[in-house]
Amino acid sequence: MTKGRPCVSQSLPDISALIYLWVLEMQKFTKNELAQYNGKDGAPAFIAYEGKVYDVSHSFLWQDGRHQVLHTAGVDLTASLDQAPHGADLLERCPVIGMLDED
Amino acid sequence: MAKVAREMVERAGVNVDQLLELLVKNAAAELTTYYYYTILRVNLIGLEGEGIKEIAEAARIEDRNHFEALVPRIYELGGKLPEDMKEFHDMSACPPASLPKDPTDIKAMLTVLVEAERCAVRGYTQICNMTAGKDHRTYDLSLAILNEEIQHESWFSEFLGEGPSGHFLRRGETSPFVRKFLE
């Protein structure tokens, strides 16, 4: 077992182990890297929420990296979602393509 | 443009340019929804389809009324509608309420309808939050529209069997909340 990592069962891969492996496979984004995916000038539109990075490029509601006038892609919107007239469930419609590196 | 009316809203701390963009986007959503609901309505046929045609029609007419009610406020605040209809369509605050691949699938039809109404409920809630206690006229208008959008959502939600809401079909005229803005 690697120090500092949760133990992954060798026999029965339970759901937490599968999630852990999935997280390991995910691309990591720093905040600066995320900022490049702002949906402008043909760039993909990615946003972060609670550590996950979502690809909202194909959402009608995120055209040109803007959402309902007030929000832009390429940033962590965790705090903003508390003020939004919808919950995180709507984000689940968009694919998770990575994890936000908090460092 | 109503100069003092805009000035009052600005002085209350509202970003009027942002508010105007939201109002135009929601006006676009109303007019495009009116268009898409027209297509949905004509495809609501058969025993099941005819059962929801009446509420789809009421929602369609009321969404057009919402567009009509929003436009004067946009111009009062110094905004305007785009000259290009395609641009107007594409800037909508809500996705197109497109006809499902199988129009005989009534559940799919109702899902399109309820999703459109839910988008509208979110949009007007946002405008109400932004204008409450600051821009009384836009707040009053948005609240009136919100009341009708919530009823539309409830109608379609009940047909999907999501639970009772206590709302009934319109008796009499459409737009009981928004009518005062339609002079």
How would you briefly describe this protein structure?
The complex is a heterodimer of chains A (about 100) and B (about 180). Chain A is of the alpha+beta class and about 100 residues long. In chain A, about 20% of the residues lie in helices and about 20% in strands.
Task: Give me the count of strands of chain B.
Answer: 0
User: In which order are the strands of the major sheet of chain A placed?
Assistant: 1-6-3-2
C-alpha termini separation of chain A:
24 Å
Profile the largest sheet of chain B: none
How many structural domains of chain A?
A: 1
> What's the helical proportion of residues of chain B?
55-70%
Q: Structural class, from secondary structure content of chain B? A: mainly alpha
Give the number of DSSP strands of chain A.
6
What can be said about the biggest beta sheet of chain A? 4 strands, mixed
Kindly report the name of the CATH homologous superfamily of chain B: Ferritin, core subunit, four-helix bundle
Question: How large a portion of the residues of chain A is in β-strands, by DSSP E?
Answer: 15-25%
Give the CATH class of chain A: Alpha Beta
Oligomeric state of the chains? heterodimer
Output the helix-strand order of chain B: HHHHHH
CATH architecture of chain B: Up-down Bundle
3D architecture notes:
The complex is a heterodimer of chains A (103) and B (183). By secondary structure, chain A is an alpha+beta fold. Chain A is 19% helix and 19% strand. Chain A is built from three helices and six strands. In chain A, the strands form two sheets. In chain A, strands 1-6-3-2 form a four-stranded mixed beta sheet. In chain A, strands 4-5 form a two-stranded antiparallel sheet. Chain A is globular and about 45 Å long. In chain A, 19% of the residues are buried. Chain B has one domain: Ferritin (Up-down Bundle), CATH 1.20.1260. Chain B has six helices and no strands. The two termini of chain B are 18 Å apart. The mean pLDDT of chain B is 95. Chains A and B meet through loops of A and helix 2 and helix 5 of B.
